[in-house]
Each structure stands twice: as C-alpha cells, then as structure tokens.
Amino acid sequence: MSPKTVPRPGGRSARVQAAVHQASRELTQEIGRAALTVPLIAARAGVTPSTIYRRWGDLAELLADVALDRMRADTEPADTGTVLGDLVAWSEQYLDEMSSEIGKAMLRDVLAGSSQAEMPVPCQCAAYTASQIAVILERGVARGQAVPEVDAVMDGVVAPIIYRTLFGPFQTSHAHVHALVDACMKGAQEKAVV
C-alpha cells in the first residue's frame, strides 16, 4: 500500500476504492491474474486509468492494496476459553487461509508491492495478523493465564507458516502448527514461573 493510499477512506474516495477493488477481484477470477491491466480494471470500475495510477501508482501496488484489504479480519478470533485453544484455532484457520491458492496469491501480491519499505511496518498484513494475536493474548491476560508475547507468536507460529507456504519444500500441517503453538505456550509458562 503506497503512501497515496488512504486506509478506509470516506465519501467518493471510498466508492472509488470499493469499485476498483471489486473490479480487480472480479477480473482476476474471470481472466486470471496474468491478463490483468490497469485499463481493464479502470473500465470495469467506471474510472479512468489515470485515477488508478494517481492513487496506487501501478498495478502491483493496486493488487497489493486489494490483497491487504482482503487480509483485514472482519471478526475477532474464536474464543475457546483458553489461550492455548484460541491460538490453536486461530493458527489452524490462518494456515488454511494462507496456504490456499487465494492466500498464496494474496501473499505474492503484497510482497510485489514496491512501496513496502516506505511503510512504518514492513508489511501491513503483519500488523493485521499481530492485532488478531493481541486480541487472543489480551483475553488470556484477563483470564489470568500465562500468555506469550505477540512477537513470540509472530516469530514462532506465523513466520513458519508464511515461510513454508511461500518457500518451503512442503506445507505446514495442523499437527506442526499445534507443536509451534505448544512451544510458544511453554515459553510463556516458563517465563511466568521465573
């Protein structure tokens, strides 16, 4: 997402963003990612190509913004009653979403955005993911349970999922995710004892 792009804008800007995002998603399904062009998206969205170039800069930035918007969670993570249960449920769902063909395409589009280094967080999707984890951990703190740090979950659970999804010779399994979550929880419990 470029500095020009305003998250969740209002008014006409919101309508343009929604139309361009919808056109991008529809055309990707209809003709495939490789055939997408800014003029095709602009025509479908009812805007001029210059509107897209002015707002997003290029096709890669637009697709990164569409992917980021899709990665933004609509609901809070499931509440199973324990931090361990919540993290396992969330991690399984995250694995399923990110390792799907749609998830892989979204990750590639986010990585292809050229202005990622200009953002305060290297990848806005990391901020969305961290905020979901923070909800789980805050619930655990409120219950008086030992909880890992957000960064421990990002490094110990999320990073292996993303790495193996994009680069690994094999995909992460639910059993492997359980082991990753268990290791994070063990670290939190050891830290709580000290």
Secondary-structure map with pairings?
Elements: H1 11-31, H2 38-45, H3 49-56, H4 59-71, H5 83-99, H6 101-112, H7 124-143, H8 150-166, H9 174-193
Helix pairs in contact: 1-2, 2-3, 4-6, 5-6, 5-7, 5-8, 5-9, 7-8, 8-9
Provide the CATH superfamily of the largest domain.
Answer: Tetracycline Repressor, domain 2
Q: What percent of residues adopt helix (DSSP H or I)? A: over 70%
Poorly predicted segments: 1-7
* Largest sheet geometry: none
Give the mean pLDDT. Answer: 85
CATH topology type of the largest domain: Tetracycline Repressor, domain 2
Please write the CATH class name of the largest domain.
Mainly Alpha
Give the name of the CATH architecture of the largest domain: Orthogonal Bundle
The percent range for strand residues is: under 5%
Distance between the termini: 42 Å
Q: Tell me the number of structural domains.
A: 2
Radius of gyration using CA atoms only: 19 Å
* Overall morphology: elongated
